[in-house]
């Protein structure tokens, strides 16, 4: 493979303001939800009992936008900035919205079907891993090279490490809430599936011209 991705990575500082608009709005939403304070603790988190017994299905969405504390929020804001810097140009706004929804649904279904022991959850990290996986799929689809392979390999290694060894030490040590690494895997699967669906549609549309 060639190092074809390297010039693009060196030009991150030149990413236009338009590309940052949607990530900035999403970051503002995450901050605004966090500022809701005490009432949010009662109604926003993923609560398995409340969802299944009381039909509070809105929690399947709101849980991903609420965080345990400011450190938890800060990690996900940093991750969002990284995803935006690396992958903002890979899909249009509609595509990113499809990916975000797919990652959210994948995490929720994963929890409900495969994690019956998980009673409570908050945080954007599962969805964030879906956005990252989607961006990497776009890189691998359009122009695979050594940089892309390295980043994709590290991403896969991180997910594997979490399943075998637990959360990465330098993140877990800064958080007051346990890291639910299963969310990362489910989100990555949802994001990757959505990205591949979009990329296949784009290929078919281009071929029909």
Brief account:
By secondary structure, the chain is mainly alpha-helical.
Describe this structure in words.
- With 209 residues, the protein is mostly helical.
- It has one domain (6-207): Rhomboid-like fold (Up-down Bundle), CATH 1.20.1540.10.
- It contains eleven helices and two strands.
- It has helices spanning 6-10, 17-34, 38-43, 48-54, 59-62, 70-87, 93-114, 125-142, 146-164, 169-172, 181-207, and strands at 46-47, 120-121.
- The protein has a two-stranded antiparallel sheet.
- Helix 2 (17-34) runs antiparallel to helix 6 (70-87), helix 8 packs antiparallel against helix 9 (146-164) and helix 8 (125-142) runs parallel beside helix 11.
- It starts with 5 loop residues before the first helix and ends with a helix.
- The model has no long low-confidence stretch (mean pLDDT 91).
The geometry reads as: globular
CATH architecture: Up-down Bundle
CATH class: Mainly Alpha
Number of strand segments: 2
Q: Which sequence of strands runs across the widest sheet?
A: 1-2
Helix-strand makeup class: mainly alpha
Helix content: over 70%
- Average per-residue pLDDT, rounded, comes to 91
Unreliable runs? none
> Distance N terminus to C terminus?
30 Å
Radius of gyration: 17 Å
Instruction: Write out the CATH superfamily name.
Output: Rhomboid-like
Major sheet, described briefly? 2 strands, antiparallel
H and E order: HHHEHHHHEHHHH
How many DSSP H or I helices? Answer: 11
Beta-strand residue fraction: under 5%
Overall domain count: 1
CATH topology: Rhomboid-like fold
């Amino acid at each position: 493979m060639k190092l074809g991705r390297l010039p693009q990575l060196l030009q991150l500082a030149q990413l236009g303001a338009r590309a940052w608009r949607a990530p900035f709005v999403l970051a503002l939403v995450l901050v605004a939800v966090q500022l809701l304070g005490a009432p949010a603790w009662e109604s926003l988190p993923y609560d398995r009992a409340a969802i299944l017994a009381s039909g509070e299905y809105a929690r399947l969405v709101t849980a991903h936008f609420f965080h345990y504390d400011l450190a938890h929020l800060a990690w996900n804001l940093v991750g969002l900035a990284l995803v935006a810097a690396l992958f903002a140009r890979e899909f249009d706004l509609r595509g990113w919205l499809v990916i975000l929804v797919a990652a959210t649904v994948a995490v929720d279904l994963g929890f409900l079907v495969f994690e019956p022991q998980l009673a409570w959850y908050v945080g954007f990290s599962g969805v964030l891993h879906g956005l990252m996986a989607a961006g990497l799929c776009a890189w691998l689809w359009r122009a695979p090279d050594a940089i892309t392979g390295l980043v994709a390999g590290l991403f896969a290694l991180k997910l594997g490490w979490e399943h075998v060894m637990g959360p990465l030490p330098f993140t877990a040590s800064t958080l007051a809430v346990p890291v639910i690494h299963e969310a990362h895997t489910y989100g990555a699967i949802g994001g990757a599936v959505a990205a591949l669906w979009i990329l296949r549609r784009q290929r078919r549309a281009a071929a029909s011209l």
